[in-house]
Design goal:
Length: 176
């Protein structure tokens, strides 16, 4: 009578051969994919940092413009949240792990954390600076993307730049 255990006392299970994971063959070599993914990781960190800052300002804005700014910041952080996912998924499609920790974002992001209690105008100014920082980060990735003929990433970057440039303009308009 068999007990279902091996001589070591562990349950005997049929071992399945490891499946071979196919390599990535999308017409972009491994080094180029890594360079692009590294740039996108910086973009992801900037986008997440701006998301967090915008959400913070949504919660903490005060003053006569409270309602309009509260709603505007909500629209902005919701848009940023969706962008985080799109950027992370592109990094994964290129074969790299997407950074996903505060520690990683702190190292990769160019957007400083908001400190102290800020006026509504100071919040708006910081968000203009953050939107423009994301544009600069996105723009800095283009040489690697163009060189590799990575049209999907170029499309993502173009879309992100359009959103951030328009948002920076709209926020700046509030300052007069």
């Amino acid at each position: 009578m068999s007990t279902g255990k091996s001589s070591s006392g562990k349950s005997a299970k049929a071992s399945k051969p490891a499946k071979a994971v196919p390599g990535i063959h999308i017409g972009i070599d491994e080094k180029a994919r890594k360079d692009i993914a590294d740039g996108l990781s910086r973009l992801l960190a900037d986008t997440f940092s701006l998301y967090l800052k915008t959400h913070n300002f949504h919660w903490n804005v005060t003053g006569p413009q409270f309602n309009s700014l509260h709603l505007m910041f909500e629209e902005q952080y919701n848009e940023l949240w969706l962008a985080v996912d799109a950027i992370a998924e592109r990094i994964r499609a290129l074969g790299s792990p997407a950074p996903g920790s505060y520690t990683a974002y702190a190292k990769l992001s160019s957007i400083p954390e908001a400190k102290g209690s800020l006026s509504a105008d100071e919040m708006i100014s910081q968000l203009v600076e953050g939107q423009e920082a994301v544009v600069r980060t996105a723009r800095s990735i283009f040489p690697a993307v163009d060189s590799a003929h990575d049209e999907p990433t170029a499309d993502l970057l173009t879309q992100r730049m359009q959103v951030h440039e328009k948002t920076a303009w709209m926020l700046r308009s509030l300052l007069g």
